[in-house]
């Protein structure tokens, strides 16, 4: 990372993600931790004081009035992403939106339109795509390290919270698919592309909150991806990419892994002689993405080529199709 021109960051929301982002911002040269915003003034003040921000707000519009706010990180419930992002863009702020970019593809398209109209930077915070290990893994696959890729297997299942928690709220568009399944789906799309067919079943509450799903993405020439997500049980949160000459294993949690293991060559070599590729992890893992966003804004970009808005639209469109497949 190189030192950047000072960029005033505001974090909206005070949940766990906001805390991790606030901590990792301290490791970014040129990132000014300016504001924290929450409907709960006490929580905003607490997070602001703990992580060295300059101000705390309980009014989103009042925070946007502050000219020293350049970038708004939106880490609020899924149902609020579109409204907050569009408002910030219309007020001349750059936005980085916690994944998923929106609750559905229609809302995502509205955010993209607002971004184009404003001329400001906008991106979904798909931090996995910025991890050095993840980038190196994709490069190795593209270079033929495991031959032709034939399948992907990835899961993200952790029993989060309790049924009466905010994570299980229909009003907030809570969803295991949106919150957790987005990572396996993104991996499959990065490696295999857009699927030709989708099969999915899941556990869905009467209020529409999906708690778990298992998904098969079908591709031409008998290629496939088998994916799972759950917020009520453990599904081993690692991943593998399998090819004609070997396979790659990404350890748990695969979306934040700092290493991967390649097994290739003859069957004895593949079984007994793995090659491990490792990278140093900085902070909680958000540092590469946060630094890349700052660099992009400094150079005048309104999107980042590693994760452009078109990719967010495509992935959310696939998630919508998966949800439709689950509900029939």
UniProtKB/TrEMBL annotation:
Residue ranges of every copy of the Gfo/Idh/MocA-like oxidoreductase N-terminal domain listed in the record: 8-122
One Pfam family named in its UniProt record: GFO_IDH_MocA
Single GO MF descriptor: oxidoreductase activity
UniProt cross-references to InterPro entries, sorted A to Z: Gfo/Idh/MocA-like_OxRdtase_N (IPR000683), Gfo/Idh/MocA_domain (IPR050984), GFO_IDH_MocA-like_dom (IPR055170), NAD(P)-bd_dom_sf (IPR036291)
Protein origin, superkingdom: Bacteria
Gene3D superfamilies linked: Dihydrodipicolinate Reductase, domain 2, NAD(P)-binding Rossmann-like Domain
Keyword annotations: NAD, Oxidoreductase
Family: Belongs to the Gfo/Idh/MocA family.
Protein name, per record: Oxidoreductase
Lineage: Bacteria, Bacillati, Actinomycetota, Actinomycetes, Micrococcales
């Amino acid at each position: 990372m190189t030192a950047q021109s000072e960029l005033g960051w505001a974090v909206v929301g005070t949940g766990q993600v906001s805390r991790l982002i606030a901590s990792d911002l301290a490791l970014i040269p040129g990132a000014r931790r300016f504001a924290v915003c929450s409907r709960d003034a006490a929580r905003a003040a607490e997070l602001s004081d703990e992580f060295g921000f300059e101000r705390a707000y309980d009014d989103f519009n009042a925070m946007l009035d502050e000219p020293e706010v350049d970038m708004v990180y939106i880490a609020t419930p899924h149902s609020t992403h579109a409204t907050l992002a569009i408002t910030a863009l219309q007020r001349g702020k750059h936005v980085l939106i916690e994944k998923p970019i929106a609750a559905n593809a229609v809302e995502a398209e509205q955010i993209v339109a607002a971004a184009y109209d404003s001329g400001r930077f906008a991106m979904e915070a798909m931090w996995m795509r910025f991890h050095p290990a993840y980038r190196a893994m994709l490069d190795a696959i593209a270079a033929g390290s495991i031959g032709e890729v034939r399948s992907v297997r990835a899961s993200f299942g952790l029993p989060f919270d309790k049924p009466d928690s905010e994570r299980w709220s229909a009003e907030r568009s809570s969803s295991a698919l949106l919150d957790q399944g987005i990572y396996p789906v993104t991996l499959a799309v990065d490696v295999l592309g857009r699927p030709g067919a989708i099969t999915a079943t899941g556990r869905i509450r009467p209020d529409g909150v999906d708690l778990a799903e298992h998904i098969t993405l079908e591709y031409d020439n008998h290629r496939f991806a088998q994916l799972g997500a759950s917020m009520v049980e453990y599904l081993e949160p690692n991943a593998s990419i399998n090819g004609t000459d070997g396979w790659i294993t990404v350890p748990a949690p695969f979306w934040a892994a700092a290493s991967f293991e390649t097994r290739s060559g003859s069957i004895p070599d593949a079984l007994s002689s793995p090659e491990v590729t490792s990278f140093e992890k900085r902070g909680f893992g958000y540092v590469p993405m946060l630094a890349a966003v700052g660099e992009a804004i400094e150079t005048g970009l309104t999107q980042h080529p590693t994760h452009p808005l078109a990719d967010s639209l495509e992935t959310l469109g696939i998630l919508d199709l998966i949800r439709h497949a689950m509900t029939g």
